[in-house]
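Section 3.1: Structural characterization of target chains.
Under the original work plan, the team committed to producing a structural model for every single-chain target entering the pipeline before any wet-lab resources were allocated. The record below documents one such target. The sequence was received from the expression subgroup and is listed exactly as submitted; it comprises 264 residues.
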Amino acid sequence: MALRSALMTVMVAAAEKAAKALKRDFGEVENLQVSRKGPSDFVTAADTKTEKTLVAELSKARPNFGFVLEEGGVIAGSDGEHRWIIDPIDGTTNFLHGIPHFAMSIALQRADRIIAGVVYNPITEDWFIAENGTGAFHNNRRMRVSARKSLDDVIVATGIPFKGRPGHEEFLEQSARVMGATAGLRRFGTASLDLAFVAAGRFDAFWEMGLKPWDIAAGILLVQEAGGFVTDLHGPASPLDTGNILATNAEIQAPLRRVILGTP
C-alpha cells in the first residue's frame, strides 16, 4: 500500500505491528468456541493486548500526544492539542464468533478536528485511510461516496443497540421507516467499517445512536474526505460528542434524516 505522509506511515506501522498478534488470536477463536470457559475472557485479553501495542508504537513516534482509548480511558499528553482516538477491535462480537468482519480504528484529533484516520481489517487486509484535505483511499484506490439520489435505490447500514442498553424501541421504529423507504437495510456489526463502506460507495448511508468516539472518529474523516457528509442525527452538534450519527452523500442526507426521525 502506498503511504501518503510521515504521519500515515506511523499509523499504518502501528496497526501492522498490532495486527500480527491479533491475527493469531483470531485463529484461536474457533477452538475457544467449544471450551467450557468460553471465549469472552480471551477476547478481552486480545482487545487489551492490541490496544497496548498501538499505544506503545504510536507513543514511540509521537511521545507528546494524548490518547482516548476504549479500554484504557483518557491519557493526557504534554502536547495538549493532539490526541489519538483508538478502538483496538471494533466489532468484538464478530471477533468472538469467528466472523472476519472487524477492524482496528485509529484517528488523530487536533483540537476539535479529526485530521487523520485508519480503519484496518487485518483478516481481509483491507486498509481504509484518510488525511484532512488529501482524500480517502481503500488500499491504493481513491474512494468516493455513492452518487445515488433516490431513496428507492439506496442501501442503508445501521447498528442495533446492545442488549441492556436503551433505544431498542426507537431503533425498531426508525428501521421500519427506513426499510419502507429504501432498497434495503444492512447490519454488519462494525461501525468503523460501515463508515468506510459509505466512503467507498458500497453503502449509501449509515446511521446509529449511542456510539462512542473510538467507534466513529476515523470513519467520520473517511466519509468526509470521500465527498460525503457526516452529521449528528438530530441536529447541529458533533456526533463525536453525541454518539448519534448520520453519514450519507449530499443528495440523500435531508430526506433520509426525515425518514429516520419520522418528520415531515
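DSSP finds eight helices and 13 strands in the chain.
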